[in-house]
Each structure stands twice: as structure tokens, then as C-alpha cells.
Amino acid sequence: MNSFAGLAGHLSGAAVDWPLALTVTVTAVVGSPVGGRIAGRVPHDVLRRAFGWLVVVMGVFVLARQLDPTL
Known about the structure:
mainly alpha; 3 helices
């Protein structure tokens, strides 16, 4: 209930890019079962290592975007 109240409050004062929201939602709904099937066939160590690298790469990307471009 708290999440719904927060969403309703947010939607009343913010513009939502509905096509983007719909695209992300459809991709998540379709990708979830596909990812579940693939994850069942990939060894856990490989998944853990790939996720670790994904986190590192995303962290570097976010950090690079925050740096001053004049540096």
C-alpha cells in the first residue's frame, strides 16, 4: 500500500515517458522467464563472476559520467 501511495504521489507531479516505461515493462516480463531458463543451464560460478563484472563495469561507467570533463 505504501508503494502505491508513493507512486500515486509521484505521478501527480511528474511527467512519465509512457512508451519507455512500457518498453521496459514488456522487456522485463519477457526477459524474466528467458533469463530463468538460461540461468538454470549456466554454472553458478559463471553467473556470479559475470554479475560481478557487470557491477564493476557499471560502477566505472557511472563514475566516469560523474567526473569533470575538463580533467
